[in-house]
Amino acid sequence: MKLIGDLFHPDIALLPIGGLYTMGPRLAAHAIKLLGVKRVIPMHFGTFPALTGSPAALREATADIPGLQIIELKPGASARV
User: Fold this and answer.
1) Cβ-proximal residues to 40 (8 Å cutoff; 6+ apart), any chain
2) Among residues of the chain, what percentage have pLDDT more than 90?
């Protein structure tokens, strides 16, 4: 993640937060810091009970990152970013 942030300076990241087969909110928060992004779209969460990560937990884990925008999409929704 740090290498991607250093080389490509992304503006936005789509990060998994489900926590079973992917990173959870705590690890996603660390990835956000390494990437240096200010906008995040969380994904791969809440589709079945074992995926316990949530956008609310990600917001809590990233409360110390000033200016971070977490864009929570509903299934089938899109966003202009």
Assistant:
1) 12, 13, 14, 15, 28, 32, 58, 62, 68, 69, 70, 71
2) 89
